[in-house]
Request: fold
Amino acid sequence: MPDIICKCKSVVPSNRKDCPACGRDCGFPNVRLASSSEEVAALEKRVADAQVSAAARQCGAQLASFAESVEGARAAIARNLHVIDDLIKGDRNHYTSYQAQVHAGARDPEENEWDRVRTQYESALYPNFQNEIIFACLTLSQEGMSGYGGFSIILKDEMIAHRASLFEENPHSFIERHQILMNKPFPPGYRAIWETKSDLAVAKLHSRIDSNTTIEDHASILQTDQGGTGDGDFIEVHIYGSVNRRAIDKVVGRKPRTFEDRIIWKRIQRELDSLGAEAVEL
Reply:
């Protein structure tokens, strides 16, 4: 992504949100990246190809219906009860990025194939500002990916839309699928801003649509969950900065099994109610 020029005529590096000279807000770097002419043109080409494919398979109407459904998709973060309980205790508690947690000593990487290389692919995806990005998934089912936790925080659109970009899939999977070297930039056309999330979904998932596809199928086409960390398939939502409890629209999960967790869940329900948010038990 090229540097931009601020109103004060100073160069703003691609990783900066504010101008280093005058301090003006120059937009969220991840959104600027997804909005670049190269990214937009490449995604538009993929969408056009998807529409041609759907027309040839006589499922253009079904693809358009899927796109319409995705316009209403939400950002979900799946975590365990203890993380959510800590987040909702006060406005000064923040949910921050994995990278920020590791650098602050608040979290250690896990000994698995994903965390061993996570810093490399996140820095390739967002050069020099990977510490600012928190990850969610795009969902029509009101649930996040269960491998990251049994309860899903559904975020308010108005709290994230302006600072969120979307990416085709888990970057780890993307790198393997496209055989990308870590000293090379990611190819264009696999990102979107919040307002064009349906374009990314159409470009990625059009081959899963056919003439028999119904509205009831849309959620499972957009998101497949196989239970493990890094498993399944979904479009990622990348949000610049942290969120606090005021960004929560609802928390969704199944009734906890243990007495201790049921006590925590009841406390979370009370806190959410006081915030005007929902606690949804499946």
